[in-house]
Amino acid sequence: MVDGRYDLIIIGSGAGGGTLALELARTGKRILLLERGDYLKRERDNWDSKAVFVDGKYQAKDTWYDGTGHAFHPGLHYVVGGNTKVYGGALFRLREQDFGELVHQDGVSPAWPLGYDVFEPYYTRAEQLFHVHGLRGADPTEPWASAPYPHPPVRHEPRIQALNDALEKAGHHPYPQPLAILLDEVDGKVSPHSACVRCDAFDGFPCLTNGKADAQIICVDPAIQHSNVTLLTGAYVERLETDASGRTVTAVHVTRNGASEIYSADIVVSACGALSSALLMFRSASEAHPNGLANGSDQVGRNYMRHNNSAFMAISREPNDTVFQKTLSLCDFYFGAEDYQFPMGCIQMIGKSHGEQVRGEALPPFLSFFPEKPFDELARHSLDFWVMTEDLPLASNRITLGHDGRVMLDMKPTGDEAHRRLRHKLEGLLSAVDAHPHLLSRSLYLGKDIPIGGTAHQAGTLRFGTDPQNSVLDLNCRTHEVDNLYVVDASFFPSIGAVNPTLTIIANALRVAEHIAERLGQPLRPDRPATSTISRPAADMPAPATETHG
Description:
The chain has 10 helices and 24 strands. The chain has helices at residues 15-25, 49-54, 116-129, 158-169, 215-223, 274-283, 355-359, 375-380, 416-429, 502-519; strands at 4-11, 31-34, 64-66, 71-72, 102-104, 107-109, 132-133, 175-176, 179-180, 185-186, 189-190, 229-232, 235-242, 249-256, 259-270, 308-316, 328-330, 345-349, 382-389, 398-401, 407-410, 435-441, 485-487, 547-549. The longest helix has 18 residues, at 502-519. The chain starts with a strand and ends with a strand.
């Protein structure tokens, strides 16, 4: 029995699924958007550091296992808007060289089957759609662009401006971090009608004022204003069913409110996130696909990448009273340095540390000038950084699903030396300002007991390519083996570079949307791209019902 027939079903409402839903809404085709979570509750705890980082209030409660059998909780968020509800809004383009082959100390970062020139126009549209604030030309490693950023950069506060100036004086090239933010400033001050108020709870927090340009605010809410788009929340997709040949998905099996429901569509798109999309393929194993849907190549779940991410706080003798700190980046060592010929990566500033976060850390003895180690005071003296280096795709780095339903994420990190060297570079840079040259590692930034990098930048489990023997998706992100099944999250990445992946996910969703629209018989007019009509409800507005029709 089929409970509903649609032209298109999209599974997942994050950066990829939300963007695709908004872009294809204007085709007039019947679209069903399935989200396993609900709207994230707007409440005071959205801005509470202990609730968000220490307690992990909004994280999924799933338990997975690493390659040694140890349990951990993945840094996933099952909510409308997906992980973008708590992302830092940093929307970088991959560098042009990232689309080619890059030699690292630990191996080779493979070339993409499509070049930067193919993605560039979609990068430009993605920046416009997500209201990115930035400045072209300040970063010597940035790729060429066909248009300026749609909004000016977010201004530095005095202490960060001083850091910027000190780095420039030392011959470096700091630049404004490109941010997806709904911020309006007039003469350097937040306007009375700005959704963002430049608070200290932007990076990693849900935004209580809807000032963060996330997938819910930018894509999903505007998409369901169209009468042809339906959103179902609390809708967990158990499996995808195909016809006997295995070439066509004929049914999407959903559990919602404890009941089983079945939906079907001409085209089905998985946008669950790289890890969850791979798990969906495994759950959908059948006689036609015994090793998992679309997995004749045995590549599903393999080549998992997640960046080598570390958050650090540098303790300065001078207080840092910056409120909105996430405004500066430095990529001078992205492709190497005089003393290291291999790529390293990117240094970014992140949101200010809070006392409750510091309380959970083991503090080293070099902080002797804080004899009682008051946590709020330590946070007040911190400068906070994010160090990101590339993780190479290895076939052995993979997610699997056991017969008992146990999820295992087995991975061997790459790029340790590059990451160590980039951290050392950061320590040297800090000598230009009055900051302690040692860095305190921040394990709580991605959630308690999650390994470095967590799953925040998950990618690569269903990579795209031209050869069905070593890739899962074709160049349009359609599975090689199933004619009407597509994937538009970071699963398709052949490599991950050393910048945040979200803008590339959005750009690719816009690219794939054009192909799907043509297949549906409703080509998209390039002169009339989708725009986001953002509604900004009052903070106490109740969450929408679990079934939302446009």
